[in-house]
Amino acid sequence: MSQARSNLEVLPKSLQFIIAMGFLALALFPLTDQAFYSQMIARMMILAIFAMSLDLLQGVTGLVSLGHAAYFGFAGYVLAFITPDSGPISLWWSMPVAVFASALLALVIGFFVVRTHGIYFIMVTMAFSQMIFYLFFDNKILGGSDGIYINFKPDAHFFDLENKTVFYYFVFVCMLSSYFLLRRILWSPFGRTLSGIRINEHRMGAVGYNTFAYKLSAFTLAGACAGLAGFLWGAQSGYVNPELMGFHMSAHVIMMLILGGMGNFAGAILGAFSFELLLHFLKDLPTVGRFEMGKHWQLWMGLVIVLIVVFAPRGLLGWMQKKEKNP
Known about the structure:
The protein is mainly α. The protein has a domain at 36-246. It is built from 14 helices and six strands. The protein starts with a helix and ends with a helix.
């Protein structure tokens, strides 16, 4: 366990201060009265929750999933199915139902998936995700390829979530709560065991840990956290479609972790914001001659990811840590 414990690095105080200032800036941003950018940042915070959920699985436990978007999109669909066509729906039962549904789906899939290792784990997660994607894509009863519109009118009793500023702060609280809860889990005996499994699963099993149960618990918890993000996404956009469960969405969240860094959740948040900002920048690139640079944003995004992997393999946060230690 000492090796697993040594893997849990404490961020330098300067980086902790930067993270705290970042959270403070997010808390104060609505005061600028920039409605469009507030909604864009709310979307980034939702994706940050999604990225943190995968970080628990990939960065902490060492399980690389190419199908994590299944739980994200599934929660959005659950919200769509339980929301009435007219009239309000209670936030305090619709959100737990959507999160629980994603956790249950992750538990069922994880029961089979976590028995595999390495490339087989990666391929099986992708296979399950694609099965769910095509189940919704090809089934008109489930909305088909067109998706489903959500007439979400949340009844929260104490505040009005239809107010975009209130919704922004609700998402902010969800992101902040997810971050501190996952950080707490990371430093708990459970989290240290997950880190130990990532480093040497055979050794952890040899000393008496039920690695299957620990991995299944992490898989289920990651699915629940992704479900929270999916619920918030559906609530904000008012629309869900099968693409939310598809391979591209799963690949995007992996790229967020590559950009920001894995293993401490702050990198996941940084990666989600960096990915979305970079995406908007690349899509707005000008046309040079006959070459529409913005139309081929995937090319430039791939180049950025390659450069990050080569020159900052631990992501932007890891690069900042390295600079802090070796200025």
